Amino acid sequence: MVPIAIVGLCAVIAILGWRGVKSEQKRVAAKLKQAEAKADKRAPLTLEKDPRTGVYRARKD
Fold first, then answer.
1. Strands (DSSP E) along the chain, which ranges?
2. Given pLDDT bands bounded at 50, 70 and 90, which one contains residue 61?
């Protein structure tokens, strides 16, 4: 009887852990989707090459 209880306890822990992982995955996916939507609204940066150094930098408007 004891091994059945241990297996049952392990199954319950695994199910609760899986549910926790899935809820965290949904939370992170929603946050990522929100960040992507915010990034799409920004204007794209224009790069300029510095003639002295040859390094590309964002244009200062």
1. 47-49, 56-58
2. low
Cα 27 to Cα 41: distance, rounded to the nearest angstrom:
22
Q: Under the phi-then-psi rule, with left for phi > 0, alpha for psi from -120 to 50, and beta for the rest, what region is 48?
A: beta
Model pTM greater than 0.90?
Answer: no
Does 44 have pLDDT greater than 80?
no
Backbone angles phi, psi at 56, to 5 degrees: -85, 135
What's the distance, CA 44 to chain centroid? Answer: 22
Provide the residue ranges of all domains of the chain, joining segments of one domain with +.
2-58
